[in-house]
Amino acid sequence: MAAAMKFAKSHEWARPEESGLVTVGISAYAVEALTDLVFMQLPEVGRHVKAGESLGEIESVKAVSDVYAPVSGEVVEVNTALPGALETLGRDPYGSGWLVRLRPADAADMAALLDQPAYDALVKSQPH
Amino acid sequence: MAPSLLETPLCRWHAAHGGRMVDFAGWSMPVQYASIVDEHLATRRVAGLFDVSHMGRLSVTGPAAIDWLEGLLTRKVAGIEPGQLRYTLVTGIPSGGAEAVILDDAIVSRDTDAADRTPRLGLVVNASNRVRVVEWLTSQLPPTGVALADHTFETAMIAVQGPRAIEIVCGLCSPADGERIRALRPYRATAAQIGGHPAAVSRSGYTGEDGVEIVVPAAAAEAVWIAIHAAGAPLGLVACGLGARDTLRLEAGMPLYGHELRAESDPFAIGLGLGVNLDGRSFPGGERFRMLRDHPVGWIRAGLVFDSKRAAREGGTVWQGDREIGVVTSGSLAPSLGQAVAMAMLDRAAAEPGTAVEVLIRDTKQAARVTPLPFYRRG
User: Fold this and answer.
1) Which among B143, B197, B250, B347 has most CB atoms closer than 10 A?
2) pLDDT for B194-233, tens place per residue?
3) What is the sign, positive or negative, of the torsion defined by CA atoms of B330, B334, B338, B343?
4) Do B141 and B158 lie in a common domain?
5) Are B36 and A36 in contact (CB < 8 Å)?
6) B354 is in which domain, residue-wise?
7) Same domain as B182, residue B245
8) B190 and B184 in contact (C-beta within 8 Å)?
9) Å from A52 to nearest chain B CA?
10) Reported pTM
11) At which of B127, B150, B173 does a domain end?
């Protein structure tokens, strides 16, 4: 059984798959907060990232934001359809709106992330 | 939200209707309610409703009001008819400065009803410059004959912009008031009752659309806003935040103080020559403007259009090969065009429409071409 999805404070999600890879995306809250997405840049396959390092950029009409790697690892797959169909992020942020799959370098990284209740509490405390 | 932020009389409404409140020049203002793109497009297609109460509203009254302001503004004040507005620059010496600079751009107007025949002039200034403009003007007041007052906090200002804006507002007026508003030429104003509240209505705005800007007493602001919203919403009017206001004015090629227009700017180089009247006039910094008019130098303002939706941002450098030829002053996706645009200050030699350039966006150079302003003109 796949382990539960966890969240970074910077609003990325990470979901361990049965294959051992970790799928990464950005939370529904983050997509909603950004709104009016116009551009996304994703990393190349093969890139090694450290947890907390920039994985790519997402741009809305108003601002550019970095997307951070929630766990360290190697980028093994990229959702190349996403930059051309950014509306997918709003429609299905935890499914077809995934960004990359990482081969995790350190299993302990997942433990450092927030579980769903803790992330929900974080979102609740954000100013609107 | 920091408690020290200033609030307009409409803040409660914004917060209750999903407005994302941000600090704008010390004011708590909605940057957007839902989507900037949707708000922008609604304004182009039907109408947008904007709270612009953060703008400074000053009055200059008294028998010497016209003569005094005539010596301070870059546009002629003496010839303004009652009920007329003029775009002007405000030049002056900032505190601690030695030379006159551009303190702000503003709309100067003359009130319609002068029952006692004492001139009453209005000056609408940017929120970010209100305090220093008031300080400068106060320092220039003569001992008698002119009174300067800041009405920003006792009034509110609401902009209704878009092809159906006039129709929506006039529907809330008596037939006679509605007729006068419909008959207003651009940059003309009239007094009217909107939803039963006294208002000063001018045919003006900052979006490139037809429309009005309405000044009402602060106590009436929410009632007038709600009445306009209720009348317009069924047609497709939406409340808009400062985000859409910025993309709308960018598409319309309108300069914004602090971006295209700055303290040391050459007004002729940014296409604001019409905001400067030097004929037989003198005002602070006038000699510098005369030099700049007669001996053009430096970069000039131009439009850039990109193939992508990825926007250049302020400060992005513009290149031709390895030669830096300009800098971006404002940039965004242009929702009406579906592609990114920017205004930039460019080397005159590269500012010819059609010229291919590259703009540094974060770490990569993006292709763009020079294009005439505005990017959008209403049909």
Assistant:
1) B250
2) 999 999 999 999 999 999 999 999 999 999 999 999 999 9
3) negative
4) no
5) yes
6) 298-371
7) yes
8) yes
9) 19
10) 0.93
11) B150
Q: Which fold has domain A6-124?
A: OB fold (Dihydrolipoamide Acetyltransferase, E2P) (2.40.50)
- Total count of domains within chain B: 3
Q: Are residues B33 and B170 in the same domain?
A: yes
Residues A20 and A103: beta-carbon distance below 8 Å? yes
* Closest residue in A to B338 (Cα–Cα): A38
- Which CATH number is B40's domain given? 3.30.1360.120
Token pair for B15: 């917060």
Output the domain CATH number for residue B61: 3.30.70.1400
A61 in B contact zone (CB under 8 Å): yes
| Contact list, B309 vs chain A (CB under 8 Å) | 38-39
Return the pLDDT at A1: 45
Please tell me whether residues B76 and B140 are part of one structural domain. Answer: yes
Tens digit of pLDDT for each residue in B92-143? 998 888 999 999 999 999 997 556 678 899 999 999 999 999 999 999 999 9
Q: Is B34 on the interface with A (CB under 8 A)?
A: yes
- Is ipTM > 0.95 here? no
Q: Is B31 on the interface with A (CB under 8 A)?
A: yes
- Residues 4-23 on B with a CB inside 8 Å of A are 20
Q: What residues in B contact A57, CB-CB < 8 Å?
A: 362
> Which pLDDT tens digit goes with each residue over B247-296?
999 999 999 999 999 999 999 999 999 999 999 999 999 999 999 999 99
Closest Cβ opposite residue B309 in set A35, A38, A57: A38
For residue B290, which amino acid is it?
R
B88 and B129 co-located in one domain: yes
CB contact under 8 A, A57 and B362: yes
- Give alpha helix (H) positions in chain A: 28-34, 87-91, 108-111, 116-124
Could you check whether the bond before residue B142 is cis, i.e. omega within 30 degrees of 0?
no
For B22-39, give the DSSP string.
Answer: EEETTEEEES-SS-HHHH
The whole-angstrom distance between B299's CA and the closest CA on chain A is 26
* Contact (CB<8Å) B362/A62: no
